Amino acid sequence: MNPRQQRDVEILSRLESGVLDAATASALLGVGARQVQRLRVRYRQEGMAAVVHGNRGRAPANRTDRALVERIVALAGPGGKYHDLNTCHLQEVLAETEQIVLGRSTLDRLLKVAGVRRRGKQTVTVHRRRRERRSAEGMLLQMDASPYAWLEERGPQLDLLGAIDDASGKIIELLFRPSEDQVGYLVLVRNIVQRHGLPMSIYHDRHTILRSPKRPTIEEELAGQPPMSQIQRLLAELGIESIPAYSPQAKGRIERLWGSLQDRLTKELRLANIATREAANAFLPGFIARYNARFAQPPADPVSAWVPAPVDLDFCYYFASRETRTVRADHCISFAGQVLQLLPSPHDPSLVGQRITVHRVPEGDLYLYHGRRRLAYQVWAASAVQPSPPGAEAPAAAAPKVHKSSARQRAWLYGHR
Questions:
Q1: Chain segment 86-100, per-residue pLDDT in tens
Q2: Quick check: pTM over 0.70?
């Protein structure tokens, strides 16, 4: 007996012994008072068999013949002449050519039990509502990337990064990259800010480049700072709201744009005989102007929501990937196999033990910052110190060893002699 039947036997035995009354037994068994009396009589006559259903162990009267099932499996299984027919088609063919008449649901169930057909995954239907466009241009951008053979067989596989305005459907920016990467999004957002200004919000997917999946460290929890990706940090510092989408349908406007561009842009690149990423990027401004003139529509509110970028905005500070370093006792830090020597400054005579940030812009140049202030530095070469302009990256080189007893040399380097 199964656990449910064992429980029913226990209830009936307690009913017979007087521990339970009929009303309590009825509630526990989930049946009416008359059925309790029937079960009680059967229990006195048959014992524990009273709780077992009378059809248990009997073959169903409408069970499909086993030989017929094996014949159907042989015809519809791998190697059978009907192996690639769907269930509805198979039902019709079996009835017409094999004189096997079965209901569609019965045939489908037999094939799934036999392992000839896979059981489909049950999907939960999501109710979605139409979202109205934003009223003014610059209120919301949708940003995404599309991998595709944009150059067809003439060139390499590329990813197209882009942003579209939600209010007008206007293409704001497009950029070809070898793959969807952090550098590409840095350049894309930088171009948007330089050419248009700061949007109010950006709608994007939950790619780890755009939204960090990491759990906060103890230090971050103590500081109340959630982990952020470089792009997530950039948008937060610029005051641009970052909105993650939880389905492709949520950012359907740019998803539909990719379908249009994979048709139109691919053919125009072919007609222009473009075969390199550099030439494709140079082709994009003219294409964007033609596309917007044809398909963009005026927003409901003619007053733009774009915020002009400040004149003194330090693009090297914001649009760069960042890493922190601690200044050593010799006023040097190590980064990417290089030793960078901080130059003395009247603002900070000594930064020993201080945390500074190394900013690498998309072009590869390095800039050092203490807070918001840019620091001058030199790159140690194998034979001598080669100065580099403040914030510029010098050729990579190994750092020479500085002996601890070279106090005079260190004093000269720091300007304290």
A1: 888 888 888 888 888
A2: no
